[in-house]
Amino acid sequence: MMAPSRYGSEAARDAAQVVRAHIGGLKPVAAIILGSGLGGLAQDVKDAIRVPYKEIPHFPESTVPGHAGELIAGTLEGKPVIALAGRFHMYEGHDARLAALPVRVVHALGAPTLIVSNAAGGIRRSFSPGTLMVIEDHVNLTFRNPLIGIPSTGEERFPDMSTPYDPLLRALAQRVARRQGTTLEEGVYCALLGPTYETRAEVRMLEMLGVDAVGMSTVPEVLVARALSMRVLGISCITNMACGISDQPITHAEVIETTARAAQAFQAIVKGVVAAL
Fold first, then answer.
1. Which of 62, 106, 174, 181 is most enclosed, with most CB atoms within 10 A?
2. 22 is catalytic
3. 92 among known catalytic residues
C-alpha cells in the first residue's frame, strides 16, 4: 500500500500549529500567495506578524529572487488575512506536493478562500507587459499533480475542475477593477515545469491550444485548494511577451521590473476583493 504523502494533512497540521503559536487566534478570510515581484502587498498588511519560512516545519527557504520567503498574518482593508510572500516551485527540485503544502497549511489555519498571483508570459497577442489577467481556467502541462497518492484527510479524491477559479470571485475582481479604472483581462493560464522559458515552437503550440498566458507555478496550489473546497481567485501579471510573440530576449530581471510597475494596480484590486469578502 502506498504510504501517505509526507506533505499531506499531517505535515500541514504540524506547520499550522507552529504558525498558530505566532499568530494566535487570527481567523483569515483569505490567504494570498504573492508571485514573483508581487510581494509588495505584504507591506500593506496591518499589525503584521511575520514568520520566516525557515521557522515553519516542512517549509524550505525560497531561492528565487522576488520571493521573500515569509508568512505574514494581519489585516488588509480591515479583514484578517494570511499572505505568503514567496512560493516553492517544482523547478527548484521540489515535489508537487511540497509546492502545494502552503495551501494545506492556510486551510488548516481556517482560510476559506485562496487568492493566487503569478508573473506570466503573454501568449495572447493583444496583451502587453504590465497587463493584469484574472485566470478563468488553466492547462496543466507540468505533468505533475500534488493529489497523487493516498488522499489527505478532508480532501476530495476526485475534485471537480469544471470551474477551478470561482466565477463569483472573478466577477467581483472585475467590478473592483472597473471602479478603480483598471483594465482586467480574463483568460487561460498554462503551467509548464520550467525553469527554461518557452521556445518559439512551444509558444506556437500554446497559442493553438487557446492559452493566453504561461508560467511555472500556481496550478499545484489550485488543485489542492479545490480538493479542499476552497474558493480560488487567480491573477496573472503579464511581465513579457512570450518567445516568438516578441523578438526580445526574456530575463528574470525583466519580470521583476514589470511586476514592480504593475504592482500598484494589482495590490488595489486584491485589497478591493478582500474588503468585499
1. 106
2. no
3. yes
The number of helix segments (H) and strand segments (E) in the chain equals: 6, 9
Which three cell numbers, joined as nine digits, stand for 124? 495572447
Catalytic residue among 92, 186, 254, 257: 92
User: What contacts 185, CB < 8 A, 6 or more positions away?
Assistant: 124, 127, 131, 132, 133, 134, 212
Q: How far apart are CA 97 and CA 251, in angstroms?
A: 28
Backbone angles phi and psi of 135, in degrees to 5: -80, 120
- Catalytic residue among 83, 217, 227, 236, which? 217
Q: Is 246 a catalytic site residue?
A: no
Segment 171-225, tens digit of pLDDT = 999 999 999 999 999 999 999 999 999 999 999 999 999 999 999 999 999 999 9
pTM for this prediction: 0.93
Contact, 215 vs 99, CB < 8 A? no
Active site residue 67: yes
Check if the beta carbon of residue 230 is closer than 8 Å to that of residue 111.
Answer: yes
Separation CA 266–CA 259 (nearest Å): 9
Active site residue 58: no
From the candidates 117, 118, 152, 240, which is the catalytic residue?
240
Rounded CA-CA distance 107/129 in Å is: 33
Is 249 within 8 Å of 149 (Cβ atoms)? no
What gap in Å lies between CA 1 and CA 267, rounded to an integer? 46
Assign 103 to helix, strand or coil. helix
Cα(119)–Cα(76) distance, integer angstroms: 22
Instruction: Please report where in the chains the cell 484590486 appears, as a residue.
Output: 269
Choosing from 89, 94, 107, 138, the catalytic residue is 89
Catalytic residue among 5, 36, 117, 118: 36
Q: Is the dihedral of CA 134, 188, 43, 260 positive or negative?
A: negative
Q: Which helix (H) or strand (E) holds 91?
A: none
